[in-house]
Amino acid sequence: MSNGNRQLKEEKVFKDPVHRYIHVRDELIWDLIGTKEVQRLRRIRQLGTTFLTFHGAEHTRFNHSLGVYEIMRRIIDVFADRPHWNDRDRLLCLAAAVLHDVGHGPFSHSFEKVFGSDHEEWTRQIVLGDTEVNEVLRRMGDHFPQEVSDVIEKTHSNKLVVSMISSQIDADRMDYLQRDAFYTGVSYGHFDMERILRVMRPTEDQAVIKYTGMHAIEDYIMSRYQMYWQVYFHPVTRSAEVILSKVLRRVQHLYESNYQFKLYPSHFTGFFDGSISLEQYLKVDESVVMFYFQMWQDEEDPILQDLCQRFMNRRLFKYVEFDQHFIMNQWNDLQELFRQADIDPDYYLVIDFSSDLPYDFYRPGEEEERVPIHLLRPDGKLRELSRESELVEAISGKKRTDQKVYFPQDLLETPGHEQEKQRIKEILLG
Amino acid sequence: MSNGNRQLKEEKVFKDPVHRYIHVRDELIWDLIGTKEVQRLRRIRQLGTTFLTFHGAEHTRFNHSLGVYEIMRRIIDVFADRPHWNDRDRLLCLAAAVLHDVGHGPFSHSFEKVFGSDHEEWTRQIVLGDTEVNEVLRRMGDHFPQEVSDVIEKTHSNKLVVSMISSQIDADRMDYLQRDAFYTGVSYGHFDMERILRVMRPTEDQAVIKYTGMHAIEDYIMSRYQMYWQVYFHPVTRSAEVILSKVLRRVQHLYESNYQFKLYPSHFTGFFDGSISLEQYLKVDESVVMFYFQMWQDEEDPILQDLCQRFMNRRLFKYVEFDQHFIMNQWNDLQELFRQADIDPDYYLVIDFSSDLPYDFYRPGEEEERVPIHLLRPDGKLRELSRESELVEAISGKKRTDQKVYFPQDLLETPGHEQEKQRIKEILLG
Amino acid sequence: MSNGNRQLKEEKVFKDPVHRYIHVRDELIWDLIGTKEVQRLRRIRQLGTTFLTFHGAEHTRFNHSLGVYEIMRRIIDVFADRPHWNDRDRLLCLAAAVLHDVGHGPFSHSFEKVFGSDHEEWTRQIVLGDTEVNEVLRRMGDHFPQEVSDVIEKTHSNKLVVSMISSQIDADRMDYLQRDAFYTGVSYGHFDMERILRVMRPTEDQAVIKYTGMHAIEDYIMSRYQMYWQVYFHPVTRSAEVILSKVLRRVQHLYESNYQFKLYPSHFTGFFDGSISLEQYLKVDESVVMFYFQMWQDEEDPILQDLCQRFMNRRLFKYVEFDQHFIMNQWNDLQELFRQADIDPDYYLVIDFSSDLPYDFYRPGEEEERVPIHLLRPDGKLRELSRESELVEAISGKKRTDQKVYFPQDLLETPGHEQEKQRIKEILLG
Amino acid sequence: MSNGNRQLKEEKVFKDPVHRYIHVRDELIWDLIGTKEVQRLRRIRQLGTTFLTFHGAEHTRFNHSLGVYEIMRRIIDVFADRPHWNDRDRLLCLAAAVLHDVGHGPFSHSFEKVFGSDHEEWTRQIVLGDTEVNEVLRRMGDHFPQEVSDVIEKTHSNKLVVSMISSQIDADRMDYLQRDAFYTGVSYGHFDMERILRVMRPTEDQAVIKYTGMHAIEDYIMSRYQMYWQVYFHPVTRSAEVILSKVLRRVQHLYESNYQFKLYPSHFTGFFDGSISLEQYLKVDESVVMFYFQMWQDEEDPILQDLCQRFMNRRLFKYVEFDQHFIMNQWNDLQELFRQADIDPDYYLVIDFSSDLPYDFYRPGEEEERVPIHLLRPDGKLRELSRESELVEAISGKKRTDQKVYFPQDLLETPGHEQEKQRIKEILLG
Lengths: 430, 430, 430, 430
Known about the structure:
- The structure is a homotetramer of 430-residue chains.
- The first copy, chain A, has 430 residues and is an alpha+beta fold.
- Chain A has helices at residues 27-34, 36-39, 61-79, 90-99, 108-115, 119-128, 132-138, 144-152, 159-165, 171-184, 193-199, 214-232, 235-256, 269-273, 278-283, 286-296, 302-313, 324-340, 345-348, 385-388, 390-395, 418-429, and strands at 7-16, 20-26, 200-202, 207-210, 318-321, 350-353, 374-376, 382-384, 403-407.
- In chain A, the strands form three sheets. Chain A has a four-stranded mixed sheet. The first copy, chain A, has a three-stranded antiparallel sheet with strand order 5-9-6.
């Protein structure tokens, strides 16, 4: 490997409200952060539509990516000179940390659900393709981009390195929990990261935790548990996401129906048919999406217009809990009533399952699951966390599914079709 | 006055990372916050281009407006039942707090400087014009919008109420200092607001501070002092602002030169000739600006293209300090050298004065200045703060002007015109 | 009831690092705090010997008592004007909060274990006896001291009031968790008290929690869980407590054996035979105990001297875990070996069970247990917390007993009886 | 130098609420902390009588000494490998940090004022005399205790090392400001230590601050300024100190008058005539003082009894401001009136000057002053802080003297000598 990295003449520092300072000493990292693909993450919010629930949550993926980098840097400081750790992997880890989310687009969750877009695939393309990121990485040797990509995709042969960015307790999770807690302002999400870093140890296969750190880890798992229920699965956030998804579906439908747009969805067409190129993809950030939504408030199509107005002005759908039984028995009736009331149920009557959401608080051993946390006992043996901690055992693997129906209550209060609307309200609101 | 306000059935609460919780009990306030003009503030950053210096500073004016409201609410709680305070003014104060920044557009400082746009005028129009905000306010009586407008414009006859939102220590400043410190992550900007609120007292003319609170006020003034130099006047932020302003000027120039845009600046033309309507103005948020900048990276015009790429990818101008003497003697030479090197000095050689910036840390008694802070002595007399506090006296009125030249250092390293570029570097970098 | 309370002319404020400010408006409360019995709590640490483990934990019961008062005051603010709350009980609650720990003596846990002293009995005597506290309370009527005493003893007929100071989520626990976390510096012990207070509601029988507050309560229960294992049951603290208890036992033994003390234990003799009067009891604070221990470092008796030196200079016993099986089989042998090695096992070989410790994290429904937490559902029904929360259910009732043997390892390294000492080490250290 | 230090097998960690963790890797340091002379600091409060003003301020000098050690450790981490820093001085710095306050006795300020005791002299004796501290230090070579003593006394030839523990911005001050702010709960005292450490640089003569750190230093100076006026000079603390001093004076007077004590002041007699030995000195901690005060509440002498009761039960003297003029004219009259009213003015009428207090916020260049702060400019030149910072210049050297008269207002309300008492009140209270 040619050494394409130099130390910066003077350490660069970012002020960060979560980690206080983010320290960069390697030119490679500094230049990666300066690439336009990474700078683009400034225009993609970390938590999608959550800012409509928690107004503080306006932070971006750029913000988070720097945080993951900083935690990774601190983990490596702890690992230095310990068995199983090879300092040649340092830049690989740091670069993977900076880039792990680089393929995310605007409102990723919705775009992926509606269009089948895959941010991991885009990450790979950005790392391996004709990009500024790739150009910077290649300074470390031609194979380096592939290595970084393998680490992010969890296929790299060095399992220890992979675990540092993708496991149940990795730099990624430790940053986002703290960062999301900080920006939303909730009181959860705090744990003693300083202590966790001090008890983290490299092994051949993964980073593990010294047994004496078990309480700190329990606290971290509890933070995750609380963050998921308080922030990530928040029903208002999901309501905004439902509307966003429906806008995207409506636009695709209109496009496919040859509707005459006032503002043609040129940034979206590649998503509709899957033909989108990397260059095009990189141009679609949240400003772009918001611009279209802003403009589409004036489209002729009443559904597109209405949904965009709802999203821009935060006039969200109401939600109610429901159970399986309900769906079986009343769903068809309800859809029919919506139709009779002139409210298109394809856009205005939506079921949403929390279990669809891409978060897990801790499920050891499930298929395709991330590496579970192992405790390192004084005798050198490893034990999976939930076997040692009653607390973690108690909550792991329990899938608390939460099912909600979302619908526009305001439309049920407008004149016309009062009888059907009354019936709908009886069913949904009891 | 018809009482157009009702108490909400249940108090609504926003989670706020700065004030922990923001409490809303009045339907009027709840509905104001829900108007599309206020929701639009979610798409306008509180600190303009500062996010390019402090990546945490991605917070919006919506965020800040809620904070000012909350502080106002707490001040009113302290004032309740005290002489000079009339509880009928409560909603007037709260509404003014929510709306005090509602006229701001995207990157206000730059837009105002380049186009002479005036956010105060827009605020007036939003409050008094045909808007959702006006509709909500009018529930309190036809004169209510005018009253709110007068408070925000500092022309209302109730000087006490005006001082609560516009003085040297008002709800606005107390929120933004804490909020901007929180999001940037700097260690300054903290002061003991709880104590300040406890020692604030209404008088006929203004809110004043009990003498025993002088130390807390000193601390607040010091926070301002530090925030201005550390955050608000940060040269990197100003560098981004310089570029932004130059983009706007270039677009106007191209427009006036009948340049054939790939993406026509339809959202901007009203700014160019001052013909912009309220409806048009309200559509221009930061997403819109960012969308254009995104697209203009591919314009033919090399200056527009370059400046937009710089702004989007954070390739900012370098800056150096200089003194008056320098300008007198070398400025013309320097401009000429730029021209000879084929770098248009109108866009690439910029002087910027901190004293242009719309902040003051504390200047009692200047013309058109905000009401200075008065201390209420035990004997009932008022004393202006800087006469009692050595600390404040020491820093008040001192205008530390900071003058910098901004220019693209990278362009001086490119091939061609090496001699002129060398000479430029000698002048600017010594 | 004669109204013996007046409002203070001006509110008094204590600066408190945990609650920021403690507000006193009632002369009755102000005067209670000023009594010598309450001031005496300044000389009794909140956490006994914990300062030898966590050097920050030097805070006193005075400190905590003010904190409980402040939380109680805030709960009452939330309850004001709600059904089931009667504002006449306000001062009763506040006085009980100030006084709930007033009977504690120095190192209560050890004194109670060794001498059978009972701080609750002393609290009753202080409240009802010839004290400054009683004199202040009687201003509210002759029955008022008895009412306060009944509230503290949980026998008062007003169950709501009792629950505010003694239940699974009362002002006492909410203060000590936060305060002990603050002073020890551990990262646990934090929870969103502001939110808990907002969702607390009075009912006829007890204070309950609105259902929407369940997550905040879970977080509070987790904090307790972590604090018990990280702080309250810390083995080093218990080691210091073991030594302290052994000093007390040795002094009593020497006293009963007519040992000629250089410094006669005049402050202790009343404890030995249970004859101690209230006046005498109130003179024994931690300064007094420390004074004797200081002096007894120079006593002739080698055990008393040694144990006092250990306590003063923090030369604590070592500890090892052991199991029941071990005790049955080896305990007698071990005691015999200690004797043979000339180390008195009555003082230097100690078993300690965490289950002896006066803490519970959450055990609903046990005998003599505090009122469990009830959630108030939207339909008005109450549900016990552990039936609604999987998290709480998972940890409630699980008694994690922790048994340790404490002994002075250093004495096993001294010359003489090497063979026995070697054998002891084999048994204890494996 | 023989290397008497070994690395601990495993790093030891103290949990600290101010610095989060205190890390010890050197056996020398670990053993120093374990000496009885250092452990004794657990029984001496950091802020003397301040706990009677700020109830949170119960922290000890032990607590602070660990903090200074930790900051020193971090400074050394920053200095490592830089010019002018020699890593052989590491343990010298760390040992001096642990020991810098080891000579302090109980309520040092009062004892020093009344008895002329000198904690610096005691520190020297503890470091150089027959103590556990000395024994541990001598492991590093026979000269090592003398070196440590020289550093603490500021006479060591290595000025850089001296400046790290004794200058205007040293480990000592940085710890106490933060720690005292933390425990009192005031909002001042915070500054960005992490940043200050990052910009600190060793030079031949002293530790200096990179120019870019000027704002952080300004903030630190402001913190000191606020802490002095808000905490260190607090009049209630001084009132308690006045009483404490008067108790000491009274005891000495009684002793010299052959008064028959119920509890003879055996721990104090060495102070009276200056004959106290090191061994005796080390036995007098705050528990001992409090024990005597406790007992002396029952002495026959009415002044001793009264003053002790005041101190124990916090019945402090009232204070009023006065000016020089007042003293000249009325002091004699006032003393006479006190005598006529049967209140001994020697004990009950006290003037106190803040300028007597051992604190300076920043006075560069005064005689015997600590090394002022120097900024290191980019050109390598040093500039004294107050010449660069308007803020610091504004407050430096300004001696805000604050003079108060302390007296027992309650005694002026008792029956007898009403006329004289009335006259006294007129003079003092106006």
